[in-house]
Amino acid sequence: MEARYQINQGTRLSAREIPRPSPAPHTVRFPIPPRLSGSRCQRSGDSEKKSSSLASALGPRCTPPIRPEPPPAQSSTPRRTEVPVERPGMSGGEGPCPGAGEGEVRSCAVCGDHATGYHFHALTCEGCKGFFRRTISKGTSLTCPFTRCCVVTKAQRRQCPACRLQKCLDAGMRKDMILSAETLALRRARRAQQRVQRAFGQLSKEQEGLIQLLLGAHARHVVPMFLQFVQFRPPDHLFVHNKSRAPPTSPPPVFPLLTHLADISTFMIQQIIKFTKDLPPFRSLPMEDQISLLKGAALEMGEIELNLVFCAQDHSFLCGPLRYTLQDAIHVGFQEDFLEGLFRFHVALRRLQLQEPEYVLMAALALFSPDRPGVTQREQIDRLQEETALTLQGYIQRRRPWAQGRLLYAKLLGLLTELRSINVEYGRQVQHIQGLWVMMPLLQEICS
After folding, report:
1. 213: closest CA among 133, 298, 126, 277?
2. What does the alpha-carbon distance between residue 24 and residue 31 come to, in Å, rounded to a whole number?
3. Can you tell me the distance from the alpha carbon of 319 to that of 329, in angstroms, rounded to the nearest whole number?
4. Which of 103, 143, 329, 349 could cysteine-pair with 334, CB 3.0–4.6 Å?
5. Torsions phi, psi of 437, nearest 5?
6. Whole-angstrom Cα distance, residue 119 to residue 96?
7. Quick check: 206 pLDDT over 60?
């Protein structure tokens, strides 16, 4: 006998008619790849690149497992957006229709078309709003060719501008609420700035932490780097910055310049490697990816850091008591065309007057490039680059005036693209300078 269920005193339903609960939504599980599950410690001694100087410089480190992020929880109820109702007489005299419920249509007080809100203190459509603004702004005198009582409807509103203007005034549209072109442009710029500030808001704790992390590593390894150039094999007196000394009458020998250039270039790369080792996001990557990123970005990061000591007035680099000029690099063997492009890059970057956080974020943006050759964890590196880019963009929007910072981020991206071409050409130039390539084994590995 079929089971029966008593419902609401007298209503009987069979077991087949009882509604069954809908099945639970399908749960998506993201399996952890076998090669990434569990902790994994990689040491340079166990790697196939045991003899690699880059791997030796990076040293041993442990790579924590990469865990996929769980999918965001989906709410069963749709999200509703509250639209504030503006009343007539507010700023600009414009606003949505008050009291209009969902699906309710309000008519224009002038022509009867669909009203979009209050414009110049009257409920009108977009067409009549624009007509009223243009007519009053131009100051034209309109005359009705008929009896000054023309019917103004949606279909006939263009036949008699004079009667349409009069009906706009009769509906309550006010001439004094029309802004001038200059005031309107300023208001649009101010609203655009407010939209940007609302979009970015304050920097998050993670973004502030990233900036402090980069600044700390920068202060330990990069800032004091330039003052130590004088400790290496002494350069020729052409490099020494001494205002009381007369310029040399004959060109200096090339070999001391080559040895000094090889020493400081190797030292800069070593300090940049130490800088990256102080970044936990970089250390979390596999050793192979760390080497690939450094091969692609070490020289680019070096040029970004050199811009800190670049003097745009005389196109020289002041590193403590030493000054490096364009003529010194030409004397060593670099081609003048390449050096002119390099110095144009430094002039353009210096003109932006970057702050130290912007310099370190730009260097980190060059470091975390997922398109470097040999990279395996592209998604993770792309995520790091995106976080760095958003931090740089947010810092610019919060710490700089709108007129000064609105194009700064785009300019930095353009300079990073230009720096890639300079990086490739620099490697070619070094290989063709006799004697310099042999003295720089670390640079050989980076450019290989």
Report:
1. 277
2. 21
3. 15
4. 329
5. -65, -35
6. 9
7. yes
Q: Given a cut of 80, is residue 137 above it in pLDDT?
A: yes
Rounded distance between C-alpha atoms, residue 5 and residue 13, angstroms: 6
Residue indicated by tokens 């310049």: 257
Tokens 């090889």 belong to residue: 262
Average pLDDT over residues 282-309: 95
What pTM, to 2 d.p., does this model score?
A: 0.58
In angstroms, the CA 188 to CA 174 distance is 21
Which amino acid type is present at position 344?
R
Alpha-carbon separation of residue 151 from 47, 57, 158, 180 (angstroms) = 88, 86, 11, 31
β-bridge partners, 14: 4
- Continuous H helices in 284-355: 287-306, 326-332, 336-351
Read off the pLDDT of each residue in 352-381 and give the average, rounded to a whole number. 95
d(CA 122, CA 132): 11
Q: Which two tokens stand for residue 121?
A: 């203190």
Q: What are phi and psi of 176, to 5 degrees?
A: -70, -10
Q: Could you tell me the two tokens for 91?
A: 């700023």
Residue with the two structure tokens 């442009």: 185
Task: Cite the beta strand spans of 150-250 per DSSP E.
Answer: none
CATH topology of domain 91-178: Erythroid Transcription Factor GATA-1; Chain A (3.30.50)
Euclidean distance between CA atoms 440 and 269, whole angstroms: 11
Q: Report the C-alpha gap between 81 and 421 in whole angstroms.
A: 48
**211 token code pair:** 């900036």
> Considering only the top CATH level, what class is 200-447?
mainly alpha
**Distance of alpha carbon 6 from alpha carbon 225, whole angstroms:** 86
Report yes or no: 391 and 203 within 8 Å, Cβ to Cβ. Answer: yes
| Angle of helix 336-351 versus helix 287-306 axis, rounded to 10 | 80
Q: With contact defined as beta carbons under 8 Å apart, do 392 and 358 qualify?
A: yes
